[in-house]
Write a structure and sequence with these properties.
Strand content: under 5%
Number of strands: 2
Strand order of the largest sheet: 1-2
Number of helices: 10
Structural class: mainly alpha
Order of helices and strands: HHHHHEEHHHHH
Number of domains: 2
Helix content: over 70%
Shape: flat
């Protein structure tokens, strides 16, 4: 399903991946210094709208994939309300005899929404960016050494092969009558049984791959042409303007509600 969204032709999918990465870092850097609950809440709402209308991602899927971030954000509210570093003065109610202060809840909500914003922008980046295009962008636009760029790309391509090898190994062990024992200890024993052959296979593949890449000149020591060229476009300017305006408006507007 990820590939379906990454390959779509919506606005966010056409933005240079390097620019989306820089936008994600800019959002994180801006939110680090925000401690009120309204600013991250508004940015989270805007981020979800961008993901839906500009990225073509259904709201139901955004809500589903955001569940871990929601739970993570709720832990901030709970910890700050129950175990604050310094308890606030306005006591609202008590839980198990522990007074819950308004100031601590506001701090927890702020941190919770902040983590939700970070998660939503990470989702935006992952769902609208092809990994291959991202690596090409890092090499061509970010001047990442091809030695590392193509190496990471090749390693990413190897992940499905390891998954298939793991499945074949499990079936081979079943045919030989080794079976699979349940429980935590059984799981640990199985991991030890599979880990060494998988590690040996990974080292062997990595060695062959490194030799093949060096023999074909993927070491960054010469100028190369590219089959897939990632260029900057006017849509990148529009995206950078939109993100900048959102952050500037929120930073100016928060002076009114802080």
């Amino acid at each position: 399903m990820l590939e379906q969204y990454q390959a779509a032709n919506h606005f966010l999918q056409q933005i240079n991946p390097l620019l989306k990465l820089l936008a994600l870092l800019a959002v994180i850097a801006t939110m680090i210094f925000v401690f009120d609950p309204w600013t991250p809440l508004l940015l989270w709402v805007v981020s979800v709208l961008m993901l839906h209308f500009l990225g073509g991602i259904p709201v139901k899927f955004i809500a589903f994939i955001s569940i871990p971030f929601l739970l993570f954000g709720f832990t901030f509210v709970w910890i700050n309300a129950i175990f604050p570093a310094e308890r606030g003065e306005v006591i609202l109610f008590s839980i198990f005899g522990l007074p819950i202060a308004l100031e601590n809840i506001e701090t927890g909500i702020s941190l919770g929404f902040r983590s939700l914003v970070f998660g939503t922008w990470s989702i935006l980046f992952v769902l609208t960016t092809s990994p291959m295009t991202f690596m090409h962008s890092l090499i061509q636009n970010g001047k990442l050494s091809p030695r590392f760029g193509y190496g990471i790309m090749a390693a990413y391509r190897l992940i499905p092969l390891f998954k298939n090898e793991y499945q074949q190994m499990r079936l081979a062990h079943r045919i030989r009558g080794l079976g699979e024992s349940g429980g935590l200890l059984g799981g640990i024993r199985q991991m030890k049984r599979y880990a060494i052959p998988l590690l040996a296979s990974a080292i062997r593949k990595a060695s062959r791959l490194a030799i093949a890449m060096e023999s074909k000149g993927f070491d960054g020591s010469r100028d190369r042409t590219y089959y897939r060229v990632v260029r900057w476009s006017s849509k990148d300017v529009i995206f950078a303007t939109i993100v900048s305006m959102i952050l500037i408006i929120l930073m100016i507007g928060r002076q009114g509600w802080v």
